[in-house]
Design brief:
The protein is α/β, with parallel strands linked by helices and 288 residues long. Helix content is 51%, strand content 11%. It folds into two domains: 4-191, Nucleotidyltransferase, domain 5, CATH 3.30.420.10; 200-287, DNA polymerase, domain 1, CATH 1.10.150.
Length: 288
């Protein structure tokens, strides 16, 4: 398993400079991230590049977001990706990075109406290459170091075939007179504003929309207590209080005493959470 490892600003700038000096302008690009599964919040965990010759793995834990922009926001490098929307959203909201000059093959696959539209199925259909089952890594902890060799291989596989896939798919688009619709949809994805509305974290929680204004205020207080302790102890919020329990507390503040906390939480931490929850719904408790 051969690849170039980039672990600091100097190595990244050196690679980008050599890339440009060679007259290259196209890379395959993908990322792996953490999204409230093993730790608190969203975090960029790994960047994978294939430039047609070398596979490059960048460890973003050791490089600032400002320096990573040299890659992601470089308009002179065409980035061939697959389903770039979710990556664009994570980069924008977790690292204040905007993706520029992207060619998203998922858009083409939608237009060409493949029977199975995930990357691994498309690679199998077009190239006859069977990649590692993606489900195995859907819950993989990309924050841990060192990453396993199998995980690194999986990550590289997601970019190693994108450039040849691009040529095949673009030819199909042209043959079916779908090139212009593709260019339009691809552009629309890139120009979309991926900045999330802070209100979304409340609005998108199950049950929130049905609440009256008073209960919505209580919901936010309970939600914010959960967020506070999750961030403080770097754990996913759902590992502290299940999202269904948030609504249950709002509907019945006495439910706080029925919450089942994971055994991984220390007793004093549980008591601190319970105390703040009861304080957050104090008015409702009195009314109850």
């Amino acid at each position: 398993m051969n690849f170039i490892k980039i672990q600091d600003k100097t190595e990244l700038l050196s690679y980008m400079q050599k890339f440009e000096e060679k007259g290259h302008h196209v890379i395959a690009l993908d990322i792996e991230a953490e999204s409230n599964l093993h730790a608190y919040g969203e975090r960029l965990c790994l960047v994978q590049i294939f430039d047609g010759v070398d596979c490059v793995l960048i460890d973003p834990f050791k490089i600032s977001s400002r320096n990573l922009k040299v890659l992601f926001e470089n308009k002179n490098v065409l980035k061939v990706m697959y389903d770039a929307g979710s990556d664009s959203s994570l980069l924008k909201n977790a690292a204040n990075i905007e993706l520029h000059s992207v060619l998203d093959l998922r858009v083409a696959v939608e237009l060409l109406d493949y029977s199975k539209k995930d990357l691994h199925s498309v690679v199998s259909a077009e190239l006859g290459i069977v990649l590692e089952n993606k489900r195995k890594y859907q819950k993989y902890n990309w924050t841990k170091r060192p990453l396993s060799e199998d995980a690194l291989q999986y990550a590289m596989d997601d970019v190693l075939h994108l450039l040849i896939l691009k040529d095949l798919i673009m030819a199909k688009l042209y043959a079916r007179k779908l090139l212009e619709p593709f260019l339009l949809k691809n552009l629309q994805i890139q120009t979309k504003n991926y900045t999330r509305d802070p209100e979304d974290k409340y609005r998108k929680m199950p049950g929130y929309s049905r609440l009256d204004e008073e209960k919505k205020d209580t919901f936010r207080k309970v939600f914010d207590v959960r967020e506070k302790f999750a961030k403080l102890h770097n754990v996913p919020p759902h590992n502290l209080i299940h999202k269904g329990d948030v609504i249950n507390i709002v509907d019945d503040p006495l439910y706080i005493d029925q919450i089942r906390f994971t055994r991984k939480l220390r007793g004093e931490m549980v008591q601190a959470i319970i105390s703040e929850l009861k304080s957050a719904v104090k008015i409702s408790v009195i009314q109850a």
